[in-house]
Write a structure and sequence with these properties.
By secondary structure, the chain is α/β, with parallel strands linked by helices. The chain has two domains: about 160 residues, MoaB/Mog-like domain (Molybdenum Cofactor Biosythetic Enzyme, Chain A); about 55 residues, TATA-Binding Protein (2-Layer Sandwich). It is built from eight helices and eleven strands.
Length: about 230
């Protein structure tokens, strides 16, 4: 399963807010064997949201959108998703019923627009907040508030499944440039992909389709590099 993550918000692009949602989603999707191949941040503009969603839903098995969900003036995501599908944003009876049943709100207390979703979308309940999410075809719309986003994702996590991989990590004190020959060799000898991440030491991440291959490749490499 291949996926793309889209985060929405002017505050992300200005640097006022650090985007932790994308990294969290990528980690959870990776745990479920899903390959995330794009992370894109767009402003609170309907046209930009719709354009990116249309591009990605044509290319990937799933698109996860986070941010810009709610009834305020800058919450444009539901409108952008609806535009991408050529639909209207309409009142969701399911969203209203869920909020009345599971929160302290009465229908008359809800801010105008809170329960509006793209026509035909499945309502995703918000266990930690008010504004619901939505799923339409293979596009999932989640809130931007991290706690709400995480809780809502867990409600649909089982809908994301791919080929699980197995990872081993080898750390070395050698500089990255000195490791090129051994990285090439371990890739030739074993069916693994290798990521190289420099820092205080170099972290070599070996990924394989089964744990035995990953362990064997890591053992081979550990015998041939200086430990960190």
């Amino acid at each position: 399963m291949r996926a793309a993550v889209v985060t929405v918000g002017d505050e992300l692009l200005s640097g006022d807010t650090v985007d932790t949602n994308a990294s969290w989603l990528c980690n959870r999707l990776d745990e479920r064997g899903v390959s995330v191949e794009r992370i894109t941040t767009v402003p609170d503009r309907i046209a930009d949201i719709a354009r990116v969603i249309n591009e990605y839903r044509a290319e990937y098995d799933a698109v996860l959108v986070t941010g810009g969900v709610g009834p305020t003036h800058d919450d444009m995501t539901m409108d952008g998703v609806a535009t991408a599908f050529g639909r209207e944003v309409v009142h969701s009876e399911a969203a209203e019923e869920w909020l009345v049943e599971h929160t302290d709100y009465a229908a008359a207390d809800l801010t105008e627009g809170t329960t509006h979703l793209p026509a035909g979308a499945r309502m995703l309940p918000n266990p930690e907040g008010v504004a619901p999410g939505a799923a339409l075809d293979r596009v999932y719309v989640l809130p931007g508030v991290p706690g709400e986003m995480k809780a809502m994702f867990e409600e649909v996590a089982e809908e994301f499944e791919g080929d699980h991989t197995h990872v081993e990590v080898v750390r070395t004190a050698e500089p990255e440039s000195a490791l090129i020959d051994r990285i090439e060799t371990v890739r030739e000898e074993f069916d693994v992909t290798v990521g190289s991440y420099p820092g205080d030491d170099v972290r070599l991440k070996l990924t394989a389709g089964d744990p035995e291959t990953a362990a064997a490749a890591a053992a081979w490499l550990r015998e041939r590099v200086d430990p960190a």
